[in-house]
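Q: Hi! Curious about what Metallophosphoesterase looks like structurally. Here's the sequence.
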Amino acid sequence: MSLAACLVVPGITVAVADQQATEYPDEEIHAPTPMPDRIFLGWEDDTATTQSVSWRTDDSVTSPKAQIAEAEAGPNFPSNASTIKAEISEEVEVNHDYTNQIHSVNFEDLEPNTTYLYRVGDGVNWSEWLEFTTASDEDDSFSFLYMGDAQNDIHEHWSRVIRSAYSDLSDASFILHAGDMIDQGDADEQWAGWFEGAGWIYGMVPSIATIGNHEYSRITDTPSQLAENWETQFHYPDNGPEGLEEQVGYWDHQDMRIISLNSNTGHADIDQQAEWLDDVLEDNPNQWTVVTFHHPIFSSGDGRDNEELRDALLPVIEEHSVDLVLQGHDHTYARGHLSNEEDGEREYTTGTMFANSVAGPKMYNWSDANWEENGAYVRSGAEDTQMYQNIHVDGDELKYESYTALGELHDEFTMTKLPDGQKQVTEGEGFEEPEEPDEPSIEQMQTQVEDLLEEGAIADDEAARHFQTHLTSVGHYEETGSTDQAIEHMNGFKELLEGISGEELISEETYESLNAAADELIEQWG
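A: Let's find out. The predicted structure is below.
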């Protein structure tokens, strides 16, 4: 008999036979119960006097409610607690044989800069008491976290990043998520990984979440649509453009306005949002302004470009001199600004600072080509690195710090508002010049095709299969050292690309991006 191990007890030796582990099914791991989970704070209204909370149960719960009291040092606060019935309870069908029920309460008439304890449940089955602190109604200093895409292998690889970020900045006033929290919006096991990865953090620190393209992706064979839990689970203040009130909005937090847009141009009218953004920025009494959306104005993923988005939003952002634009999508890190005569200086004046970041494990090749082509300058960049960002605001000074998943400082700068209205930027000690990007590769092009198909930029599965088959053939010749044949087959790929473009199965932007990548490889081999 084959033995895997022996358990040794004094006087006794017990042989243990080999056993094959059995995978525990997702629908048993993640099925809801009457006990509340996925507790999540946000704001639907004034950040100083209100606080929204959502949570999940199974569909047996018929009387969801929350209790709240001002925090005390001792355990007697529950005697002063108020009970509020859930305003919303919505059943959400998922990709497993169970139904999630999402409940929501908005606590109102709270005192600014005050710590409260609350719990959610049904009167019998309660969560633990959780704590939050309302925003100040003065222009006090505060800090917040900015996280890029989580998206893939969330349970395994992303959870350590959000936990490291919170450990590093446990007094964060809120967490800003720049989209693609998951890979497929209807995959409940992925949402489970995202909520469980942060755990009770989401129940104590409010979040502002923006919509990425993968919130529209599907694991089931159903048409692309926004994740069913979005509008109930994620809190928006109902001040966005008509028809997008639960997807676009702004929050005023002390002396900062935070604006979230939906950059999925195939699902949300970007010109409508640009017009709305112009109005929101025109009537902005705050000293600091942050705009967040998923797809970058200047891409740092090799071969990527968001021209339609840039054409619509960049003029508005420039006109109003937005301070920070925080983005994701490109699975790399880049931070910079529109190019000026002070490029390369460690102290300079500028308008808007743009950042792209990634928190999860999915990685692309880094490139600054799209920045340079559109008159922008990269101050810091990275690839194959999971990141989180701490942002501190104190009066006329904003400090930005980007850390790796190990808590090592990668990039930092301080922005100061000068009396004449200019913004002076000082690069910090953590500042690192970006490394030269890797040369293009067949593997990178194949990943690009996969992503373009997911995003709907390649409209036909068969077209994507033709691309992948052709690229695999090219890769074979490259690996065997048959450079001439690799070039010949890559030219064949370009002809295929042109033919499929003529049938309008891919966008013009996709054609140009893949064609440019093919030309780079041909030049590299030549």
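A: A fun detail: The CA atoms of residues 39 and 200 lie 7 Å apart.
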